[in-house]
Amino acid sequence: MTDAAMSQPTLSQAAQSYEERFPEAFHQPFWRRFGPVIFFLGMVLYLFYATWFFDVGNVIRSGHWERAGLFLSDWISWNAPTEFRTSGGTVTPRYPKFSPLGDDPHPDWVIVNGDGTTTIEVTGKAGSVTMSATDAYVTKDGQTAHVKLGGDNPVVVGQAPAWLTPDDDGDLVADYGFTGQILVENDRVKVNKRFLGWPNFVFDTDSKFFGKSAGEDIHLIVAGPDLVKGTPNWSLAFDNFWNNGEWQHGDVLTKLLQTIVMAFLGTFFGALVALPLSFLAARNITPNAVVNHVLKRLYDFLRSMDMLIWALFFTRAFGPGPLAGSSAIFLTEVGTLGKIYAEGLENLDDKEREGVTSTGAHPVAVQRYGVVPQIVPVLVSQTIYQWESNTRGATIIGAVGAGGIGLKLWEAMLTNDNWQNVAYMVLLILITIFCFDFFSNAIRSRLIGRTR
What we know:
Elements: H1 3-7, H2 11-21, H3 23-26, H4 30-53, H5 56-62, H6 66-76, E1 77-87, E2 90-94, E3 110-112, E4 118-121, E5 127-131, E6 135-140, E7 143-148, E8 155-157, E9 164-166, E10 172-175, E11 180-184, E12 188-196, H7 214-223, H8 233-242, H9 249-281, H10 289-304, H11 307-318, H12 322-346, H13 350-358, H14 363-370, H15 372-402, H16 405-415, H17 419-448
Antiparallel strand pairs: 1-2, 1-12, 3-4, 4-5, 5-6, 6-7, 7-8, 9-10, 10-11, 11-12
């Protein structure tokens, strides 16, 4: 071995040298070495425990997943339920009392044939039923099944197709998917025909504009003769729209405005109270440990009670209405904004305040010129965000009687039959939140300046 080779450090000597120079890299604590692995294993065990605790497997197996499609279809479409009975040898249609087709409906998909039978189209010619006093011919995808009526239960003549199945009562059901369903009983046929869209959204069945095309209605409003003597057609049309009995546009929009005002008032007065209190709660502004501690515990108490709980209290105190909702938002915001403002004040750079103090300024002027300019971006940004959030929250607390559109939404959901109205109100809420987000961003950009 040469002298040069002997002068080179061995691998073990080099490793020892690095270990002496960087001991923190070679002798890490146990939790730093194995912490990520332990955390990952803990999360896996927790997920297994949560799956067992909430019985996720049984929930998935027993869930009525078909209802999701039904609810979704009810949001974007509507049914025209119709019943056809045999009376005196003829087929007589019967419609619900408050049918979306009007008081005297004559839909084009109900065809009275010359031989005394009636054909009801569900999905056009490929899906229909032709009914007489004693027989029904059900068609699906070009295949027709002959059903005899009048006995204890309807009976299929010949071999029944796979798509015409008996239910628990012995009646026959033909399911056409989204477009509708036909139920054949011993003396009648029930048809549920589904249409995309929202029925009678502009004018209900009591309006004089109902049943006319959009062009005819526009012509009447612009240049047509008065439908009601002494009332212009444009005024009558607005009144019919605003007081639409099926969609209740006037009531829904008024309740939506209540929700917006409720959120604004609660946030505004909450910010007015939280701002001066935050100066007392901040340690660097008011160096009094007792005052700081009491106010911060007050914030914790106000925030620990959810807005929904406060709404329940105030609903009992003031009765149902927007006052209860505004009061609930007010107390919640005093706790939330007070904590945010106080933490913002405690994280300020004291150099500006010290600079103003060194000029001999009054303590109020010190806060005005040394503190407020620094805290304004936080105040504006957080307050506007809370206003957006409270607009959404006001919808929820409205369901417990605190007023606003939340109560209308809850009432529509309870009926389990007005999902189009639910979709309408949800869409209005979404549009409102989008508008709030747009305008709040514009206000923040104007008052604070755009961040790059």
